[in-house]
Write a structure and sequence with these properties.
This protein is mostly helical. The chain is 79% helix and 0% strand. The protein has one domain: Formiminotetrahydrofolate cyclodeaminase monomer, up-and-down helical bundle (Four Helix Bundle (Hemerythrin (Met), subunit A), Up-down Bundle). The protein contains 6 helices and no strands.
């Protein structure tokens, strides 16, 4: 597959993963986190669809179908930004525009991580609902979905922190850094919350 900054998530899985493994960063870790969120949404929807006797499950399945699409769209967009970020970092040190371009690209990448993380945060209540009402025969699938959500949130959080650190080194405005720091704290809280649920579900599935 020839390198292209826009690697659609509609690419067959083998091809997308092959591109992820190339040394070009587009797609990169942020896009991978988005795909993990999409996997979480799909697994959660499966559990909801196997819970047909509760209207809450039907509503949950509808929301999850939309969030899967949102997660994959955000993953694809993140891959494009990742390519721009890499191009800025590759500029020669003596280039007078390098600092500004790296700063702007780092901020855009950090904001992309917050968009991915926001989808993960919205998936958290769906996990809680299905933990309460989901088909008990799908405990293991629900546990895997929670672990996928944990991984997606962790990826978004790590990328946000890393991008913010680069933005800080290149003199990003303090108010913007503060806002992104606050988003990072929200993602960490959500990650911790889903970790507790995932551990509980894993224990149940093993009983």
């Amino acid at each position: 597959m020839d390198h292209d900054a826009d690697v659609p998530t509609s690419t067959p899985l083998d091809g997308w993963l092959a591109q992820l493994g190339q040394p070009n960063g587009a797609p990169g870790g942020g896009a991978a986190a988005g795909v993990m969120l999409g996997i979480a949404a799909s697994l959660l929807r499966m559990v909801a669809e196997y819970t047909p006797d509760d209207p809450r499950a039907t509503e949950c399945a509808d929301r999850l179908a939309r969030m899967r699409v949102e997660a994959l769209d955000a993953a694809e967009a993140d891959g494009i930004l990742s390519a721009s970020f890499g191009a800025a970092l590759a500029l020669p040190a003596e280039d007078s525009e390098r600092d500004a371009r790296v700063r702007d690209a780092a901020i855009e990448a950090a904001e992309s991580s917050t968009r991915l993380g926001a989808i993960g945060i919205r998936l958290l209540p769906e996990v809680r609902v299905l933990t309460e009402i989901g088909n008990p025969h799908l405990q293991a699938d629900l546990a895997v979905a929670a672990e996928a959500l944990r991984a997606g949130l962790a990826g978004a959080t790590i990328n946000l922190r890393a991008n913010l650190q680069i933005a800080r080194k290149h003199d990003a405005p303090a108010p913007l850094r503060s806002d992104l720091d606050a988003e990072g704290s929200r993602l960490t809280e959500a990650q911790n919350a889903v970790a507790r649920i995932a551990d509980e579900l894993a224990a149940r599935a093993g009983e």
